[in-house]
Design goal:
The complex is a heterodimer. Chain A is α+β, with helices and mostly antiparallel strands. Chain A contains 15 helices and 16 strands. Chain A folds into three domains: 289 residues, no CATH class; 108 residues, no CATH class; 56 residues, Arc Repressor Mutant, subunit A, CATH 1.10.10. Chain B has one domain: Amidase signature (AS) domain (Amidase signature (AS) enzymes). Classes of the chains: A alpha+beta, B alpha/beta. At the A-B interface, loops of A face α10 and α11 of B. The structure holds zinc ion.
Chain lengths: 471, 469
């Protein structure tokens, strides 16, 4: 039997407009439940929606960036269903004519992923399930937070075009980066700013398999794990001659397995019809011009990163992390040596940040500037540079620290004098060396480095030390 | 009762004060237990204080278009701090947290809101009998219905409990009660008055309208209420002025498809004799609207379809009455069971019209007919300035007289086309009743889209002309 993985994605992205999709409530400061609400987003009687212009501009920007067909006239529809988190009993979304159709996301691997449609809609409120004891396990009550109700969403839908779990994951990662570089969404999955549903099936000898849907995957890792798990489950079942049933699944991050949410597609009839409270959405030249404000590109970043690092993996890592990339880019612009930057930005800093649990946003650029300058001027060694980064991460002023601990290389340092001092103070070691024990050279080098506080180049010093021992 | 202009000139001459006016109004309001025009009347002390404040403002030289004028608001429009029940058990204890745009404009113009008027539940009905809180009686004959759904507003104006009232008109809900109470009831072009704060029944058909005893008051109130509103994306600027001007109407069309033999004999008589009267001054021509008859059927799919969605929000989760139960689905089922029979009937009909497998044949077909109707009116108005029809096929019916909902739907036969075609239309009382005690008959004029001011100016001319006879 020949098996082929097939998956399609449905992604909801929260746009980072200042206000909600159809009312003027702010989209920030959502921490305290039900404080960012008004009669409109609570679905009070008599209220009406007003389209958020900025959300439309952001959608146009995304459409342009992904080379989509942008419909000059699109419509909003009502999707009718009852749910406690849906205040009006319907969601305002776009039906038959979405704002963008037939777009493409070019991956860094060179492959183009077609996107079927992207449309604007409003988010629902957040349901929090709690038990009477207040714990989430064994929930008996549902609390509703309407702060999220009405936050602008763009829904991105692909056909079943993904050929492996890795490809689907790569798509989501690079879509995230694309949204961030454009500046239209923070797209953080763990914060629900980007939410992913997947439908997956396995073709057997070219014959279409049964499709299942996995809901609410909230990290790229979960996407890869869930898809891999499902692929294997389907393949095993087909090998045993069993069938896969159509169902909606949830993915359990702890066990790495999927579980049934509901079987049988309850053929929901959403009774779509054009939203009579909104005229058709007609795009203007002006909106297109304003969309140019959102113009950052992930692929451009990737290609720059590739030219700096010369390694695809490094370039991808760097470009996927916009903050890290922006830091690198601003330092590269100042003309610092790429080798120094690669070491500092791609190796030392990531280690230090993860160690001290800080983010790229916490990094003080002026310190990096100074440290790089010292390195470039040959005043400090890589070891000292790393030490200074650590000091900065711990909240110390690295320049002051360097001064106080005399870490800077001084022109007037007499390395020959220091070496001969060390040799005089350690006659035993010199004796051992002369008897043929070459290992003691490490000890002697350590003594020299200690005296110079690491401000001298270890390789040069070692050569000099050997030369003087042999004299 | 005087019109606003006369009241202002008497106030100028210190013949009356707004306080006097309010005292008179309160006297009438005290009889409302007979009529039940109101579901809520504001406290008398508050109303007197408002009137006193209006007097002070006048004395300080302030002149606002509706300063000190008592006005009634249909109980499906939000007024901050006042109940907004929509005549429904489901909103029995709901208090509006904001002002409808129309209400805000009236307040800014100095009007004094006296209370909230009775209506068919969620404006669905033509008799005011579908109110969960009991029917309103017709002030002209208390055994009769004042029409609906804005029956409370019409009764309030007809009985002098307010000079002006706001109603809402989705398929005739302002014009038909005006016809039944001998008042003027005006439904503007769609979008002329913001719907923000009007509790939605059928969004693409709903319009706020004005009821008054004098056409000039309709014009004055409209000039306050009209205007594009950033809170209502379907609203737009349609020209309106506080005073009438020469209408220059020359040709009036009468609809060929209206079979005058199916009219009640009193209505037929009034309609025919008014056509006669008109033809002395105007050119009266027969026009054809081929889809006139289908309009009612289209209306009874489009309106319930939109209503089924608009009324989905009443789930008892955030406001209004909540029927508690074991779980959400049981609670929402019990809560929504508070809707009255007619509301349930229309929600079911509307859900059906939108459901997969039927949507094309019902909802889409109805909208297709609607587009035809728009086109046909457009053609007609190439040729005539106004269209005349009876407002209703019958004079006011008795309370409890009509049992079959389908018979009641027919009361909307002549009024729904203007809603479907987005056109301005008004009820004018038939001015030549031989016996003044006879129940009123209503005449409807429909004008081209946006020609609201011309329509009202024309009605004013007609009314003055008829009064001089
Ligand atoms: Zn809001």
């Amino acid at each position: 039997m020949n098996f082929k993985f097939v998956a399609g994605l449905e992604i909801h992205v929260q746009l980072n407009t200042k206000t909600k999709m159809f009312c003027s409530c702010p989209t920030e400061g959502l921490d305290v439940p039900n404080t960012r609400v008004c009669p409109v987003c609570l679905g009070y009687p008599g209220t009406l929606p007003v389209i958020n212009r900025e959300a439309v501009i952001m959608a146009i920007a995304l459409g342009k960036a992904l080379n989509g067909h942008i419909n000059m006239i699109s419509r909003f529809h009502r999707k009718n269903y009852f749910y406690p988190d849906l205040p009006k009993g319907y969601q305002i979304t776009q039906g038959d004519v979405p704002i963008i159709e037939n777009a493409v996301l070019p991956l860094s691997t060179g492959k183009n992923i077609p996107i079927k449609r992207m449309h604007l809609e409003e988010d629902a409120a957040k349901s929090v399930h709690v038990s009477s004891s207040g714990r989430l396990a064994g929930a008996q009550e549902t609390l509703l937070d309407f702060n999220r109700s009405g936050v602008p969403l763009i829904e991105i839908v692909t056909d079943p075009v993904f050929e492996s779990p890795e490809e689907a994951t790569l798509f989501v990662e690079e879509l995230q980066a694309t949204l961030r570089y454009l500046g239209i969404s923070n797209a953080q999955m763990e914060l629900g700013q980007l939410r992913c549903d997947v439908n997956v099936s396995v073709e057997v000898d070219g014959k279409e398999g049964t499709r299942v849907e996995i809901k609410n995957l909230n990290s790229t890792r979960s996407i890869r794990q869930a898809l891999t798990y499902e692929y294997n489950r389907h393949v095993e079942a087909y090998k045993r001659g069993e069938n896969i049933i159509t169902e909606t699944l949830a993915f359990d991050e702890k066990t790495g397995k999927t579980r049934t949410m509901r079987t049988k597609q309850s053929s929901a009839d959403y009774r779509y019809f054009p939203e009579p409270d909104l005229p058709p959405l007609i795009l203007t030249e002006e909106l297109f011009e304003e969309a140019n404000r959102y113009n950052g590109s992930f692929l451009d970043a990737y290609h720059n990163a590739l030219s700096w690092t010369n390694k695809e993996a490094d370039a991808r890592t760097l470009a996927l992390n916009k903050d890290q990339y922006m830091l690198y880019s601003s330092l590269a612009e100042k003309g610092f040596d790429k080798k120094l930057l690669n070491r500092m930005i791609l190796i030392d800093l990531p280690n230090i940040l993860s160690e001290v649990a800080k983010t790229w946003g916490d990094v003080d650029k002026t310190f990096l500037n100074s440290i790089l300058q010292l390195q470039q001027d040959g005043k400090i060694t890589p070891a000292v540079a790393k030490d200074l980064l650590w000091q900065a991460a711990r909240g110390n002023d690295p320049m002051k620290y360097a001064e106080e601990h005399e870490l800077l290389k001084h022109e007037n340092i007499d390395i020959k004098q220091i070496i001969s001092d060390v040799l005089q103070q350690n006659p035993d070691a010199v004796e051992k060396y002369k008897k043929g024990n070459a290992n003691v050279i490490g000890f002697l080098l350590g003594q020299v480095m200690k005296k110079t506080k690491g401000t001298v180049d270890p390789n040069q010093t070692r050569a000099l030390l050997e030369q003087m021992l042999n004299e | 009762m005087d019109d606003v202009k006369t009241i202002f000139s008497k106030r100028e001459a210190n013949e009356i004060t707004f306080t006097h006016l309010m005292e008179e109004t309160l006297k009438e309001l005290s009889h409302d237990d007979e009529l039940h025009a109101f579901l809520f009347i504001r406290n008398a002390d508050e109303l007197m204080a408002d009137a006193k404040a209006a007097d002070n403002a006048w004395d300080e030289g302030q002149r606002k278009p509706l300063l000190g004028i008592p006005i009634a608001i249909k109980d499906n429009m939000c007024v901050t701090g006042l109940p907004c029940t929509c005549g429904s058990k489901i909103l029995e204890h709901f208090v509006a947290p904001y002002d409808a745009t129309a209400v805000k404009k009236l307040k800014d113009a100095g009007a004094i809101i006296v209370g909230k008027t009775n209506l068919d539940e969620f404006a669905m009905g033509s008799s005011s009998e579908n109110s969960a809180f009991g029917p309103t009686r017709n002030p002209l004959d208390k055994t009769c219905s004042p029409g609906g759904s804005s029956g409370g507003s019409a009764a309030a104006v007809a009985s002098g409990m307010s000079l002006l009232a706001l109603g809402s008109d989705t398929g005739g809900s302002v014009r038909q009660p005006a016809a039944f109470t001998g008042t003027f009831g005006f439904k503007p072009s769609y979008g002329a008055i913001s719907r923000y704060g009007l509790v939605a029944f059928a969004s693409s058909l709903d319009q706020i309208g004005v009821l008054a005893k004098h056409p000039e008051d309709v014009i004055l109130a409209s000039s306050v209420l009209f205007g594009q509103d950033p809170m209502d994306s379907t609203s737009r600027d349609i020209p309106m002025a506080p005073q009438p001007e020469a209408s220059n109407v020359k040709r009036v069309g009468i609809v060929k498809e209206i079979d005058s033999n199916m009219l009640d004999k009193d209505v037929k008589h009034a309609y025919d004799s008014f056509i006669n009267y008109l033809s002395r001054t105007y050119e009266v021509v027969e026009i054809s609207i081929p889809h006139w008859e289908e309009a009612l059927a289209a209306y009874y799919f489009i309106a319930p379809a939109e209503a089924s969605s608009n009324l989905s929000r009443y789930d008892g989760v955030r406001y209004g009455t909540t029927m508690e139960a074991e779980n959400y689905s049981e609670s929402i089922r019990k809560t929504r069971n508070l809707f009255g029979e007619e509301v349930k009937r229309r929600i079911l009909l509307g859900s059906f019209a939108l459901s997969a497998g039927y949507k094309d044949a019902l909802y889409e077909k109805a909208n297709y007919l609607r587009q035809w109707l728009v086109f046909e009116f457009d053609q007609v108005f190439q040729n005539v300035d106004m269209v005349l029809t009876p407002t209703t096929p019958t004079p006011p019916f008795k309370l409890g007289e009509i049992k079959d909902p389908l018979d009641l739907y027919k009361a909307d036969l002549f009024t729904t086309p203007a809603n479907l075609a987005y056109l301005p239309a008004i009820n004018m009382p038939y001015p030549f009743q031989e016996n003044k005690k006879d129940l009123p008959i209503g005449l409807q004029f429909i004008a081209p889209f946006g020609e609201d001011h011309k329509l009202l100016s024309f009605i004013n001319e007609l009314w003055q002309g008829a009064e001089e006879l």
